[in-house]
Design goal:
Chain A is of the alpha+beta class. Chain A is built from eight helices and twelve strands. The first copy, chain A, binds a DNA duplex through helix 7.
Chain lengths: 236, 236
DNA sequence: CGGACTTTTGAAGTAATTCAAGGGGAGTGG
DNA sequence: CCACTCCCCTTGAATTACTTCAAAAGTCCG
């Protein structure tokens, strides 16, 4: 009589939280596990969105690339989150690419089957709307920041968001738990790795952050918050 | 036996398209009409999201303002679109402000009632996910443009999008059907009204656009497209 | 210990902002 | 109908934040 262990995991994910058990069983019946190593591509921009994934463990990066090859990072995805949301919103091709930045375990399911189940279980569709709304709101804020703030504030905001989303308290401060290069940060803030490097160097000197090769620790979150809200003022 | 006329309008809106008639009747039963004059505020950032609106006629502008008063335009809304999507995604306060830019008729409905109906009719929730997904994809593209492209290309892309969304074919070219100032365009592109003015002046000289006080006509969409895709090259 | 990748820092260049002033249109009120 | 006023738009000049170009140093992995 024991349920499939994935049922439990799905029940805690953003897409299936609060969804009735019978619906979860239907989902589980069409779902499968898949592993990706750090660096593997999970899904590719402009490909048909045939599969939707739920992250079990690991960390993924969602990017979008323009015609001339310029890239930005849309967001990072962690456990419980959806990778490849397209089928939830009736789209047919992926608007971006998703790559694993750490070894990851995902639960996959065919788009068509999911949509069919969703049509019979409003709670899944409501969760989908909820998750997409949250991402939309998030991008609204980032768009405003990008349009109106100077780089150092944008970098500060970005780090604070990452800390909230994927930060681990340590003796040295809040550590971003996945590898994050200067280039990555630049692609999240709409700047260059050079500017990010210079900015972090400045904060390093003031003891606000403590960063190394693809690692960032926020030593003084409050000071970083000051930068985010008032520009580089308030050195103290 | 004749249905309420709003049923028909709702049935053609992005949120209620394809929704069964009994669900539409439930929606109509809690809905009401409301008019706004150009300049009126429909809903305010940080207010509780008590009402969701569907646009019947007119045009609205959705903006977001930061702590230091800096503002960007998230999007314009026209007939059939949702204003105040927050209740669809389980949020409680509006992430932005919506203002009428032309005299507008809206259909309003209480958030709580809508959510209750949505929980029983998956097709509404699916439409909600679909609409939010579309907006999210749109912002992803704009974020990338803002992060990676120079101003003239961004302005070109913005005008082309507006033309597609709210353009009317005329003898002089494609006219944006609602009042749109240099400042508005600047707030959509992440630049200043000065830069927009200079850029439009340049295009005016090349016969690409024909603009005046809060009016823009795209005389040569193909030429504008060239600017959007290749920078200011390809004068011809 | 070689080699690839990441980071740092300096110097030059520039796109776009900011500062500043003036001009034009539309609507209003006398 | 004309003049006044309020917006909105334009354009020049100065400034600057950031990029681009360039080179070197550090760090991890096999």
């Amino acid at each position: 009589m024991a349920e499939h262990p994935d049922i439990d995991i799905l029940a805690r994910s953003e897409l299936f939280r609060g969804v009735p058990l019978d619906a979860l069983r239907e989902v589980q019946a069409v779902a499968f596990r898949k592993r990706f190593a750090a660096g593997d591509t999970v899904l590719r921009q402009d490909d048909t969105a045939a599969i939707l994934y739920v992250v079990v463990v690991g960390r993924l990066r969602a990017t979008q690339t323009g015609l001339d090859g310029q890239q930005i990072i849309i967001r990072y995805l962690g456990p419980g989150e959806v990778a490849g949301y397209t089928p939830l919103s009736g789209g047919d091709v992926h608007p971006g690419t998703v790559v694993a930045v750490d070894d990851s375990h995902l639960i996959g399911m065919p788009s068509a089957a999911l949509r069919e189940i969703m049509a019979r279980h409003a709670s899944i569709a409501i969760n989908a709307a909820s998750l997409l709304g949250a991402r939309y709101r998030d991008l609204q804020v980032r768009l405003r920041e990008l349009a109106t703030e100077k780089v150092d504030r944008r970098i500060a905001h970005t780090l604070l968001r990452l800390a909230q989303q994927a930060g681990r308290r340590t003796a040295r401060g809040i550590e971003i738990v996945f590898p994050l290069s200067r280039q990555d940060l630049a692609e999240m803030c709409g700047t260059t790795l050079h500017t990010v490097s210079r900015t972090l160097s400045g904060w390093e000197a003031r003891g606000i952050v403590d960063s190394g090769r693809r690692r960032v620790v926020i030593a003084k979150p409050d000071a970083l918050n000051d930068v985010a809200e008032e520009g580089q003022g308030g050195t103290g």
